Every structure is written in C-alpha cells, then in structure tokens.
C-alpha cells in the first residue's frame, strides 16, 4: 500500500478535468439529440445485452414483471441515469454513483419525474463514507476510459461487489479500428476537453482489463462485442470486440 | 397528486378500432394501458354509430389472431374468395382469384360493429387495461421525464408514452404542433348495407362508375353485402335526402341485376373523403397511430389495415422496451417506429390516390388507357400476383405480430 502511494500519489480515480467536462454538459444527459445522442443510440443495445447476461446469471425470466426483484445493483459512473433507470424498472434495488454533483442532480430530478426510487450518491467507488453497501451487480459502463487511475477504480468496484455477484463493464478497445471508428463517437463526451487531450491511449484492451480485474481478485466470465449498424442507426450484439465491448466478471 | 390519479405505461387517446386494438395487444403483453374516449363503448357499438364493413387483409387477420380478437369474431366474418374489377361501360375485367395464390382467401369482410363489439368483449377480459369514457382531455403535458394526461373530471393519468389514436382530426397531433399535408377529394362515400336474393358467392366487386368507385362487399351469410358508393360531394346531399324507396332505386341501378332483388338493411351513412399524412409520427413522449397519422381514400380498403400495421410495429417496439426496462418513449424506439411505418403508409397513400384519380374520370383516352391497363394486368400473372400480395398485406418488413410470432 505504501509503495503504491509513492508511485501513484493521488490514490483516486477522479480526473477533475473530465468531471468538470461532464458537469458542464449535465443538463443535456436526457436530450436524445444533444451531445449524448450516441449514448442514447447505444443504450437499448447495451441494456439488452446486460439484461440477458443477468437473467442467465441469476436464473430469472425477463418475461416476469419485475424479474430482478430482491437483488441490489450499483451503477458506477451513472451520469444522468440512462442505465440506472431501466434497471430500477426491472426490479433491482438500485444505487447510482457519479463523481459529478451536477450529473447526480439531473439524475435525481429525472428519477423523481419518472416515479422511480433510486439511491443516488456523489463520489468515486474507492471512496469510503458512501452509503453504498455491497451489491449483487456492479456496473461501470463507458466510464473506465475517463478515470485517472484504473487500478484504484477497479479495486473500488471489487469492494462494492458481494460474493457470487457480477461486475459488468463496457468500454472501447484500443485497436486501429477503434481509432478510426470509435474516436469520432467517443469525442461526444470528450469534446469539452481541449483539442489533443483526448487520448486514444486511454482506451483499454480486453486483455489489459482482464489483467487488472484479476489483480483485484475478479475473474472474467464473458465478453461480447457491440457493433454499429450504419443502415439502421442501431447497435447489434456481436462477437467482434474490436471497437465496443462488454465484459463481465465475478469474484474469483 | 390527487388520490384518484392513475399511473400506467401508455395512455391511448381515442378508443376507435385502432386505439382499442393497440390497448388489447399491449395489455396482453404486460404493458399497462388506459384508453380515453369522449364516447362510451356502448355508444360506439350501437347500430347507428358506424355502418361500415372493413376488408381485413390476411396479415391483419394474423395480427388479430395474435391479440385474441379473431376467435371472438371469426364466425361472423366472410372470406373474400375473388375480387372482380370492372370499368363500365366497357366491362373489361380484372379478376383476382385466391386460387392464384394458394389456399388463403384474399381477405375477410367484417362489419365494423362486429369488430367494435368483439374489442369491447376482449377489453373486459384483459387485465392491465383501464377504459376512461366518456371523458374529455383538458391537457396533455409531456416532458423528458414523463407525460400526464388531464381529464375534465379532474383526474390525471401519469404515463411514459401517449399514443394518439384519435383519428384524422387528431387534436393531440395538432396540439403537438405536428402538421399534415393532404387534400380533400371532392367526393364522399355513401355507405349502406343491402340484402339480396342471390348469393354473392364470396366475390367482392369494384365498379368504376363516372362519379367514382362503387364497391359491393360480401358479408356473412351469402345474401348480405356492404356498399361503398363514392359520389361527387355536390350530389351526395340529394341522395342522402331521398326517401328509402327512391334511394333503393338508385342503389339497385348501380348494383345491377346480378344479385336479384335487393333491399336496404339499416341506416345510410356518408363519409367525406380526403388524403392526409402527418409530417412526423413522433414527438417527445408521443406517437401517432392509425388515422391520426394517415388517412387515405377507401378505394382499396386499406386504411384500417395500415393502422393495424402501425399497431403491430409499435407493439414490437414497446413490448421489447418493457421487457428490458427501457423507457417506453426512448427515442431510438420511436424513431424506429416512424422509419418503419411512414414510408409504407406514404406508398399506400400514393397508390390509392393514383388509382382514384385514374378511375374517377370519364375522359375517353384515360378510360381507354385504364381499360388496356386492367386487361394488361390481368394477362400478366406475375404482376397480378404482386398486386394481390399488396392487397393481402404480404409485402414489406412485417412486424412479428403479422408473421404470427409471439412477442417478447
Ligand atoms: C367509407 C369507408 C370505408 C372504409 N373501408 C375500409 C376497409 O374496407 N378496410 C380498411 O382497412 N379500412 C377501411 N376504411 C378506413 C378505416 O375505417 C379507418 O382507417 C379506421 O377506422 C381508422 O381508425 P382509427 O381508430 O385510427 O380512427 P377513428 O375510427 O377515427 O377513431 C378515433 C377515435 O378517437 C376518439 N376521439 C377523437 N378525438 C378525441 C378526443 N379529443 N378525446 C377523446 N377521444 C377522442 C373518437 O371518438 C374515436 O372513437 C374505410 C374508411 C371509410 C371512410
């Protein structure tokens, strides 16, 4: 621990510049044609993939009314709550965590309007003093590429996961293809970052992510790709993980 | 919040054929709905409310089987085995026979009252479906987070999505600032039902008279038919004002002698005709469905069929969204609905408009051209089969419900 502190002094996953960027656009989280439009397009596909994974893991049927009743889920880096709300509707008791106070304000208001009960908290997963017990499911979607310290972040996620639980992460691969195709799509969230500071280098390969998860005591159990269909403007599940991918892991 | 306030997933404005079908279909798959109409279901099924009969295309029948309506009404429907199109006075024939395409009939005739009565029965049997009628809507408020429909009795219905099924004069559409393009035809449809001495043998007739198309549509029992008589608007008033005897004479002359003696059953109705298409099918937490989105000339008997396709497509999208906990009004879903349905409906609107223009006119060269056209179509089996498939609804990207598949 002491060693780590000398090599990575901050011991925090917070990247203040990124957080300020999200904060300045927080008012647009729910605008389907605003700066987060690509996320709105991606959302149904990633919710579908995750619901199917979770239904298999917990042997629940999506045909039931609240299939995930009795299970707790934490959405880390929840932003305005685009993913948090659907999982609340599916019966999970849901918490949402985000480092941006502005985003959490938007998320809280939206959930109230939609009549959903969600425990929203401001913070990063490794921070103590959060009202965030262990969860059956922890999500970290499109967020690891925005954090300052990936190891610290992942250790925080692992700490929030109960034994037998499932961690689901999604992010963008660091391949030549993602450089060409995903950077354009990823700029949407990063457009407030001064030109040139958006590093394609921050994208993570599945192998690297698996290694970090292993170090945090987690084992990868599934990986799937998501590909964009130009013709329909929608996203499909695929085995091609060269750009966007979804990875799930359990405590080893 | 008032304690009598209601919360559901989708509020359906308008309990016509499309609104009630959508309500039954969604509720059957666990999507909670409330249907609001200013008229009560009892009034809607009274004999003097709607005297029309609808030609139900094959794929529409499959959809109605899927929602459980067809078993309730099947015994009272009439299969259409043949369609004969003629252009008097030259009497050239275009003849569609179901045997050209296989065993299925070309469609089924169902009286609208039968459909409406069956839908009321089905609504009673369906859980998760609330009917609010008679009720006037005082406000439809839609925000990014939710929608709320306020009624004149002081209640409010909170929901995720409002489906405007309030017909071609849709106030919901107007309030949302969605414009329409279209025109009125200087024609109206006189609708009445006749009994006749000889059997219709399951044959539907479409005659092109000088005022416009005249359809004789077979109903259950062999000796009853529904008439749709398209007439120049300027003359409609005088026909509607005739006493029953004189009106029957006009009808009998147009039907011709082939059905033997004819008599009138029930009242006559008239419907102004127009073509109208909405600029968009969606807005924040709002979709347009059925005649609220598109209203076309009844010449090909396709208005309801298009609306049922809207219903089936919307069900595909909403049942999927409900299953995955998505906001039922999520923009990708509504955009998909609009992309899916708008082009198809525009194509049909264009086709019916063209056919009506072509056939509602007595200019000799035009008549000759269309006669040659009909004869040519009749002698070209592949083209004829394509036309028939269109009429049966078997073209394009069909929603699951119309393919006879389960949703969710
Ligand atoms: C003469 C004729 C023959 C036809 N034949 C055929 C055929 O053979 N085959 C076919 O497929 N189609 C046919 N059609 C077309 C078909 O009838 C229509 O497309 C269909 O009925 C449209 O149904 P709808 O539910 O969308 O609208 P509507 O039937 O207009 O229903 C709208 C409902 O909304 C309610 N409403 C309106 N405003 C409000 C409000 N503000 N608050 C509450 N409630 C409200 C009304 O009371 C009504 O119940 C024919 C049409 C005509 C005119």
Output mean pLDDT of chain A: 85
Low-confidence stretches of chain B: none
CATH superfamily of the domain at 6-78 and 109-182 and 275-360 in chain B: FAD/NAD(P)-binding domain
Q: Rg of chain A from C-alpha positions? A: 17 Å
Structural class of chain B: alpha/beta
Strand order of the largest sheet of chain A: 3-2-1-4-5-8-6-7
CATH topology of the domain at 6-78 and 109-182 and 275-360 in chain B: FAD/NAD(P)-binding domain
Uncertain segments of chain A: 1-9, 188-198
CATH architecture of the domain at 6-78 and 109-182 and 275-360 in chain B: 3-Layer(bba) Sandwich
CATH superfamily of chain A: Vaccinia Virus protein VP39
Name the biggest interface.
A-B, 29 and 21 residues
**Number of alpha- plus pi-helical segments of chain A:** 8
- Under the CATH scheme, which architecture of chain A would be assigned? 3-Layer(aba) Sandwich
SS class of chain A: alpha/beta
**Count of individual domains of chain A:** 1
Count of individual beta strands of chain A: 8
The percentage of residues in β strands of chain B lies in 25-35%
Kindly report how far apart the N and C termini of chain B lie: 33 Å
The value of Rg of chain B in angstroms is: 21 Å
Arithmetic mean of pLDDT of chain B: 90
Into which percent range does the helicity of residues of chain B fall? 25-40%
